[in-house]
Design goal:
The structure holds two protein chains of two kinds. By secondary structure, chain A is mostly helical. Among the domains of chain A are: about 70 residues, no CATH class; about 60 residues; about 70 residues, Serine Threonine Protein Phosphatase 5, Tetratricopeptide repeat (Alpha Horseshoe), CATH 1.25.40.10; about 110 residues, no CATH class. Chain A has 24 helices and three strands. In chain A, helix 14 packs parallel to helix 16, helix 15 packs antiparallel against helix 16 and helix 16 packs antiparallel against helix 17. The longest helix of chain A is centred in the middle third of the chain and has 31 residues. The radius of gyration of chain A is 36 Å and the shape is extended. The C terminus of chain A is likely disordered. Chain B is mainly β. Chain B has one domain: 7 Propeller (Methylamine Dehydrogenase, Chain H), CATH 2.130.10. Chain B contains one helix and 30 strands. In chain B, strand 16 and strand 17 form a beta hairpin. The two termini of chain B are about 15 Å apart. Classes of the chains: A mainly alpha, B mainly beta. The interface between A and B is large, with 79 and 88 residues. Strand 3 of chain A pairs parallel with strand 13 of chain B.
Chain lengths: ~450, ~375
Amino acid sequence: MENEKKKSLLERYNIPLHYLDFAHVEKCTNAREMEKIVQVLRSGQEGHYPDLQRCAEEKLKALKPDSKLFRYEEQIKQSNILDKTELKPILDWTDAIKTKDSALNELKKVKQNLNLPSVRKLSKIDVDAESKTEAPKPAPKAPTQPNTKNKEARIKSTDYSKWDKYDPDEEILRMDLDEERDQEQVEKIIATRKKSVATDDLRSEKDSLYERLQAQLKNLSQLEREQFAERHRLRGNENFKAKEYENAIEEYNCSIIYDPENAVHAYNNRAVAHFKLKKYFSAISDCQACLQLDPMNVKAHLRMAEAHNAEGRHLESLSIYKKVLDFEPGNAIATKAVEKLTSMLGEVAPSSATRLKIEEIDPPQLKTSEAKKEVVKSATTVVKKTEPPIKDYDLAELVKPNRMVKSNLVSAAEALGNKLQANKGGAPKKPQSPPSTPKEAMLRLPQDNLNTSNKLLIQEI
Amino acid sequence: MDKPQLIEHLHEAVTYTVYDTKWVPLSAKFVVLGSKPNGHGIMDIYELNQDKLVKVKSVEKKVAFKCGTFGAASLRNRHMAIGDFEGRLQVLDMEQPDLPVYNVKAHSGIINTIDAIGGTQIDCGAPEIVTGSRDGAVKVWDIRQGQAPVVDMSPPPQMGDGINNSAGRRDCWAVAFGNTYNAEERIVAAGYDNGDLKIFDLRTLSVRWEATMKNGICGLEFDRRDIPMNKLAVTTLEGGLLVFDMRTQHPTKGFSYVEERNAGRSVGTNGVISGPKATVWVVRHLPQNRDLFLTGGGTGSIRLWQYEYPDRRVVDDSDGNKLGVAGALNMVSAATISTQPVHCFDWHPDKLGLAVCGAFDQSVRVLITTKLNTY
């Protein structure tokens, strides 16, 4: 009787009754059909078969895991089902946010002179009229244009002389041309629209944006800066997830500008984004910036090692991995990488030995640039005059290939430049311009490179 | 269970109809706007205090409040823009709500919807408020401008005999700002009762695109207001949920979208949808992750969705034009919280997973969503 009023699911889906069977469910490969079978079974219209239903559901899960039939809705749960530990962060947060809240209320009394953009000129958008002239709807547009023309050149039904001249082929051609022209117009409009976005001269635009942000910074309290920085960082993460790495880097840039002191995460994330774009140099310098703020950051170390590795500087990479293992012995990634690299590079121990030597000489040099200058000078003289130390370095030279030494030098120079830059304010505004203050120290490196042997360079680092 | 769970943290029954709930930025407070049985407007401010809700302030005004937003307020002043049942737009200081900072008779009918931008975005244009009303107009306001809207998007005056003209008048139900990624660009999306969706470009002062949905549009939101348009979520009567990919506009086909029918109904306990088609009242993207959003439905259920991008977001069609490709919608979690429609919802801008929502059962709920950080 029910069926008379309303078809049963079985009939509606057009599924034969014998499909409701273990054997068929087993061999069915059509997800759509399986969904229907599950729905029929769940409805109970053909009787309840719990085992068959379970079997069918499992099969469907295998065929189509994201089927809508697996969507469940529950009655909302009360917060008492949550663990105390899960609820605690929220309760703590309410206390933390209250201090921020009251701090903001204090700030309210302080006048903020942000130079807001001026008020828009009063204007109107005519809702209906615009829609007719606007481009993206060629369909209604096509008939309107021929209409106007037809009015001018319409041939009266009695005007036989004109009808004699009428050439239908020509008319069709004309219509085609009109259509083409419409299409062209559409394209033109789209092109201009794109241009307005694209020709904004993105690079200079961005630079000026960063400058303006810098200018705004002094009007903001620390609290607000933190807030904005965090927002930009999250934005960056979103772009990163959507694989839009350039946009992500931009957001991270903003985040760093707003709050350079707490930019550990932003630097770290930007490093990954750079890495994804294969800009290993930038990735390394970001890691270094991050490590300057948080020297024990494992992620930054690992990423730096990875970037070095990708650049082909396996030795650098290996030493960083080892460093990670020093302060986090169990680190799985580092252990694996060390294993892989050592098997690849073979003998590595000597290189670390030379490194140790270098470090011994390092500390007195790094104290001041003045002292460094002197040391370098004295070192050059020492090398020229006396024989024994040269021997010493020659040994190292034998073990360590020249290429490695060079790359070592480059990265050290980078590190130095980066350090100086970071001290200047942390803002990565002009990475290409070399820092001006420590001229002697920076410029000496290449000169020595030309004048004296490689051994000297090792000494200086 | 690895998937996020929706949990009711606190529940507050009130004695009036709730129309909007909004968190005060950078605080544990939220504002509830509503209408008392006598038609007076009421604004309550509650504060989360450990595991209790404390009413901090209550303000009553002559006219019922419909909607409010903090979008145009800076972190320092945190003024709320409110639209009411008589078409008045006021900007209130939470400390001195009796004396509006700005007050204008914006529309001839009720202000159904409001959105604002520019408060906390630095260097992204002026702070502006957009209102949509029953009189069919969408207007953009700048509180420094005095009593006239800075952009007026009204339908043309009605022709006819006065009998038929009320029928032709549209009713704007939803507005949203978007595309504000620099000082010039800005877009307003407006949804109407007849299913019209219009995208207004405020830079070129033109209608950028329009389309018509099957049903009236109840909710609209760009996934982010202050980035180049990425996605626009649209909810309609009878359970429609559409997410448009706004990156690529095809010259004839416009923007591509993914559609979910029956998003307003409850899915039931075994995935078999039953019961009447229900409106999807509201859509709100998670401030911490733009690809997660929540919809509130007419059967009192809320659903959490995830948008998955396609492998390629743009393809070339046969004419060589760029055509956007929509992604897929994936329902993450669903819960029934009321017997009445859940029509307003607000994620906390600063705390992941914390939200406040209002339903027509005269109650306000503070919700916690777990495990959102895993997405």
